[in-house]
Amino acid sequence: MDDFLAARLQMAFSLGFHIVFACIGMVMPFFMSVAHFYWLKTRKAVYKDVTKAWSKGVAIFFATGAVSGTVLSFELGLLWPKFMEHAGPIFGMPFSLEGTAFFIEAIALGFYLYGWNKVNAWFHWFTGVVVGISGLLSGILVVAANSWMNSPSGFDYIDGKYLNVDPIKAMFNDAWFSQALHMSVAAFVSTGFAVAGVHALMILRGRNVIFHSKAFKIAAIFGTVAACLQPLSGDISAKDVAQRQPAKLAAMEAHFHTEKNAPLIIGGIPDTLNKKVDYAIKLPGVLSFMATGDFNGEVKGLDQIPKKDQPPVAVTHYAFQIMVGLGMAMVLIALLYFIALWKKRSWLGSKWLLKLFILATPLGFIALEAGWTVTEVGRQPWIIHGVMRTADAVTPMPGIAYSFYLFTGVYISLAIIVSLLLYRQITMVGKLYDSSSDHPKN
């Protein structure tokens, strides 16, 4: 493995792990705060139990997210010094503000974890809300930095120099809103379905049914509502990408030829040699409508993009199809759940509905990783779109391949440890609480 490839793989692997930890850390505090609110309003012990159980999960993911995020900050400096030399002064503001949000989150989490019976009950609940809001803001600020890479602004690029830097304009670039919205909703979808799936499994096994039923309902409502909102945020993102990054849209859809009434391609195998897609379902005019708002609108194809500036079509297309396919599967489950809530109450305790949520447990995170792949691979060969190429930005250290293997081992170990801690937490709940009671055994 050459050093250039190893450097890129190490960054990709680190981001792939961190995004999972970060999204759960962003969303779980909101689940925790809702359960806590129900406890304060109803005084039913089961909601307090759910709150305390979830608060321990929040603490675990806060710690792992902090560790994996710190590693990423070092990697930016070590592996991409050329990129940071030029980009750091421009898009450094969201990173510095993210650090502030992180410190607020840490302080609020400390109040929350150790504030039981020590501070005012509603103030205690409020600190949990602050944990969620500050965590969500941290994610949005990091995405703002990434969106700048897709839509660079806030500077003048003259004779290879970055002049007249405006960090505010750089942070609130043309892509930040659509990316932040899409990423935030995706975090709620993936975490909601994952948490609901775990509790659905416990219900199906007959372990502490009351406890897990309350937890399942909170997580499922968050996940299903977000799943139904995600196609709307996806449409906003698609229209934005069509305007700013036509090469990315063309790669996402394997759209080789510029045309009007362009079809939306579902599935298929891109044939880059012959510029076609085999075995695909094509919906005439739909891509034109999604990109331009007009079924007869013209959509730029890869034939208008210089070969050296074209993203990897196959990877981008397959990742996009996985993201959309899994997203629509979760929308279908969400609609079935809403029908159960409003019309078919008998479905709520049915095994088939619980099994659907169990099967959907990993789908949100697979879709999340696929979407992140579309965002990053679809921008290639640029690290700063239209300004700096990835090949010119990386400065790999000698022997980086060994570092890649080491970091891969660290992240896999971290994932195993987190999984074991969460499993221990879930099984401890089953031992502490009786499945037929609202109260602990002892």
TrEMBL record:
Keywords associated with the record: Cell membrane, Electron transport, Heme, Iron, Membrane, Metal-binding, Transmembrane, Transmembrane helix, Transport
GO CC, one annotated term: plasma membrane
Membrane topology field: Multi-pass membrane protein
Any one GO MF annotation of this record: heme binding
A UniProt-annotated Pfam family: Cyt_bd_oxida_I
Cell compartments where the protein resides: Cell membrane
Keyword Translocase appears in the UniProt entry: no
One BP annotation, GO: aerobic electron transport chain
Transmembrane segments: 12-38, 58-80, 92-115, 122-145, 181-203, 215-232, 318-340, 352-372, 402-423
Main localisation: membrane
Origin: domain of life: Bacteria
Family: Belongs to the cytochrome ubiquinol oxidase subunit 1 family.
The protein, known as: Cytochrome bd-I ubiquinol oxidase subunit 1 apoprotein
Source organism per UniProt: Pedobacter metabolipauper
